[in-house]
Amino acid sequence: MSWRVENACAERKFGSATRKQIIMFLADKASDDGSGIWCSKGTIQRHTELGETTVKRTIRDFLKEGILVETGARGCKNGFTVVYRIDLPRIEALELTAEPDIETGATVDPVQTGPGTGATLAGVPGPPRPPNHPKTIHKPPTRERMAVEEEEAEKILAAYPPDRLRGKAKCLSRIRDILDAGTEVKDLLEAVKAYAAESAGFTRSKVCFSDNWFKSGRWRAYVDDIAKGREANKAKEAEMLAGLANWVTDKHPLCRHITPGQIDALLAAELVTQAQIQAADLRS
């Protein structure tokens, strides 16, 4: 918990009450530098009482806008939970919520601007009276949201080998629980496809039926492999960009093979400057 991060978020505008509620919940979990936030989307949904689709969409938007940054993953009973960091410089660049000072002119018996302090005893004021905060009443889940969630679960189950499907209702319920716990739809879908490809041609005695596959957590190993593969790809990309940055810095003849997209990536990662790009006779 960090008062610094919470105060920074509380003093900024995020565009909607929903976005503000989610970022304040995440700020409560952050360290003073904004890092170390690890809570699943299902946890966020339960504590904020917002819709699951709303939470997932808002987190995706925060990642695209640079407000949140993925820094890793931590294992949990349902696979892994993504670890986030709130980008404080990005937060501090947002519009402040403070209202401008308004000149109201002179008044007779000026109205007290601060909160009331109640009765006094022997000239000592009583404790300050806190302001009343309105309670947010959240709307119940909409049919549209429920339909989207059902469609996601159906899509994942449809990727399972059809000759091993069993207990459709239980499978869909398990899938929704897995997604609620924080596993991404695309990761679970890829896990199902990976198992289907791996077990293609197996005899019936060697395969796992869908209800047991989701219930026993056999999908976790595949999701973990997907996460490791993603991290490995990020490492390879970082290594490649570092090599390209050296080319640019040294004005290597191979610079001519650097694509516009790679130039944009180098600039975004701040591995080179625009001046170095121009010095290497490259144009972004």
Description:
- With about 280 residues, the protein is mainly α.
- The chain is built from 12 helices and 4 strands; from the N terminus they run H-H-H-H-E-E-H-E-E-H-H-H-H-H-H-H.
- It has helices at about 5-10, 15-30, 40-50, 50-65, 90, 145-160, 170-180, 185-200, 210-215, 220-250, 260-270, 275-280; strands spanning about 70-75, 80-85, 120, 125.
- A two-stranded antiparallel sheet has the order 1-2. It has a two-stranded antiparallel ribbon with strand order 3-4.
- The chain is flat and about 65 Å long.
Annotate the secondary structure layout:
Layout (H helix, E strand, L loop, with lengths): L2 H8 L6 H12 L12 H8 L3 H14 L2 E9 L2 E8 L1 H5 L27 E2 L2 E2 L17 H16 L9 H13 L4 H14 L11 H6 L3 H32 L9 H9 L5 H6 L5
Antiparallel strand pairs: 1-2, 3-4
Helix pairs in contact: 1-2, 3-4, 6-7, 6-8, 8-10
